[in-house]
Design brief:
Length: about 600
């Protein structure tokens, strides 16, 4: 178990969603212009200052040239937004990095933008070429000392030979680095952000700290050299009926000015930032934010702000505020607007592990999720970014009615690639905890089935199958008084629905029983109402839930989850039966007897 530093902070999060509120634009201490002024000031005072420990000749030869560019992008639509997000070299912020933050919230929309998308800010290296067609602006050239090829963490004193850096100037040692930051922050009016020597040092690895100053009696800049860097760490957790558990695989973002880093929580919710923050310039607090870009091994998923709970716009995030640079820990409580998202994400994280153990296909490598708080826990798996959707073909001639239902689904025309893979709902009710999770597992079973079809039958075959499935369920809901998307046995494409939904319901029931002690059918704890599909007559549960008994019986005679999933690569119940017989010729008669009544 990791042991957190005593100076790290902790909070229990209960608030509702809130916007980020910005204050004034600050003078940028990292701009090339201001760093050159700081260097000139350092050189002017270096010879006459006490206790500075700076080699004046070394400082005189330093070259201030751009190490980074402060830029921003304005995507016009979801296609451009996704193009930016797909660039793993860009760490994007929806707020400018050189403004005061009066309230760090969960979202910000620049009032000058007339589209749902806002400006995104980041730093890039000199020579960066922005993607064609996306609005791009260069805001400032920066000199971030740690990013300079001339920077060294050593302290160079008492030498007559000037060590040269790769840029042609002298090496920038630790003393010059700290002095430049302290002077530039002071000259630009940001001295209150510096780590003050009168304040406690949260984590000093050097016991003998040294105070250094530059200037005259009437004007001085001072800083303290102790432990120069921080590596923030902490726990992100979520409240459950059995106590707090880790929020698994979520991205924790930390930043101050143009220094930023991301860390991913492990299965216990613990994160550790391998990137370091300079003590001088981060002062005694940095910004923390959760980014709902989650991952486990090679699988990733994102939760998105959405229109009508369907069209994905931009990534969900949660502003944790300003906390110790040593780290921050927190727990989402049930009455937080973001509690349900954490529960949904943990369900996905756990499912990936269960899929590996059970031998079924993993879901697509990336899933875009449209989430929404709702007391009605409906969900669906259109998987629109993971197959070629032929729904328009199946919808003809009822084109406009059906396409408006698919994925909510009219947003396709306006937002194009904003369409989701999963549509999930949650509620701020800990009593519904197990139900929220089991529904996620149901939809992920569909996602696994699509991936299995791709590997067994190819991308186009899988796309045709899933398009027919998505279309038919949307059409059924549109034409049913009670919005029943499943329809009835004998309806058009009923066999696709019987197989895919019967399988998903069975896997939901089995995982909920084994992992949660929960009865997903009666929505009670297992010890209160133990239930097996075999307890009931064949069609007692109604269509397509009655097909759960088929899969339970097949598992009981020794059919593996993997082979059952492979056999589902067919449009008919008889086709499923025949494929499965091919895998188990010795069980042919038993398979026939189990499936034949359901054909």
């Amino acid at each position: 178990m990791q042991h957190l530093k005593s100076s790290a902070s902790f909070s229990r999060e209960t608030r509702t969603a809130q916007p980020t509120i910005l204050g004034r634009q600050k003078e940028n201490p990292f701009s090339v212009e201001n760093m050159r002024i700081a260097l000139d000031t350092l050189i002017a005072y270096a010879k006459t200052s006490d206790s500075i420990g700076i080699n004046p000749e070394l400082a005189r030869q330093v070259r201030i040239i751009p190490t980074d560019l402060y830029v921003r992008f304005l995507p016009a639509d979801s296609t451009q937004y996704n193009k930016l997000i797909a660039d793993t070299n860009l760490v994007l912020f929806d707020i400018p990095l050189d403004y005061e933050i009066k309230q760090l919230g969960d979202y910000y929309h620049d009032p000058s933008s007339t589209t749902p998308y806002t400006w995104y800010y980041t730093t890039v290296k000199p020579g960066y070429r922005p993607p064609a067609g996306i609005n791009y602006e260069l805001l400032s050239e920066l000199f971030i000392i740690e990013n300079s090829p001339d920077y060294t963490e050593e302290i160079i004193e008492g030498t007559t030979e000037i060590p040269r850096g790769s840029s042609g100037g002298s090496v920038i040692d630790q003393n010059i680095c700290n002095a430049l930051y302290a002077i530039s922050f002071t000259l630009t009016g940001n001295e209150d952000e510096l780590s003050q020597d009168t304040e406690p040092t949260p984590r000093a690895t050097t016991t003998n700290c040294t105070k250094k100053c530059i200037g005259k009696s009437w004007w001085k800049v001072c800083w303290t050299v102790c432990d120069t860097y921080y590596n923030p760490d902490g726990y992100i957790k979520v409240e459950t009926p059995s106590g707090d558990v880790g929020f698994k695989g979520v991205k924790v973002r930390m930043w101050r000015w143009f220094s930023y880093a991301d860390a991913i929580t492990n299965s216990s919710g613990y994160y550790y930032c391998t990137a370091r923050f300079n003590k001088i310039l981060v002062g005694n607090s940095i910004n923390y934010k959760l980014i709902y870009e989650c991952k486990r091994d090679n699988n990733s998923w994102t939760f998105n702000k959405s229109i009508a709970g369907a069209a994905c716009l931009w990534r969900d995030s949660y502003g944790l505020g300003f906390h110790s640079p040593d780290g921050h820990s927190m727990t989402f409580c049930t009455n937080s607007d973001y509690w349900g998202r954490a529960v949904l994400s943990n369900a996905i994280y756990d499912y990936i592990g269960y899929a590996v153990v059970d031998g079924i296909a993993l879901p697509p490598a990336h899933l875009d999720i449209a989430d929404k708080q709702s007391n009605k826990l409906t969900s669906s798996a259109p998987l629109l970014k993971n197959h070629v959707n032929w729904s328009l073909v199946y919808a003809y001639p009822n084109f406009w009615g059906v396409v408006g239902t698919i994925v909510g689904y009219a947003s396709f025309v306006t937002y194009g690639w904003a369409l989701p893979d999963l549509i999930l709902r949650y509620t701020k009710d800990i009593i519904k905890y197990n139900k929220i999770i089991s529904i996620v597992w149901h939809e992920l079973t569909h996602a696994s089935q699509l991936q299995r079809m791709k590997s067994e039958k190819g991308y186009l075959w899988a796309s045709d199958y899933w398009s027919a499935n998505v279309y038919q369920q949307a059409s059924n809901a549109l034409n049913s008084p009670d919005e029943n998307s499943y329809g009835n046995k004998g309806d058009e494409r009923w066999q696709i629905i019987a197989l895919s939904e019967g399988w998903a319901n069975y896997r939901e029931w089995k995982l909920a029983k084994d992992k949660l002690g929960w009865n997903a059918i009666t929505e009670q704890y297992w010890h209160e109402t133990p239930w097996y599909p075999s307890y009931y007559t064949d069609f007692n549960l109604g269509f397509p839930h009655c097909y759960m008994k088929v899969f339970e019986s097949l598992e009981n005679i020794g059919c593996s989850y993997s082979n059952i999933e492979k056999a589902l690569c067919t449009y008919s119940v008889s086709g499923f039966k025949n494929i499965l017989k091919g895998y188990y010729p010795n069980l042919s008669n038993q398979i026939q007897n189990i499936i034949q009544p359901y054909e």
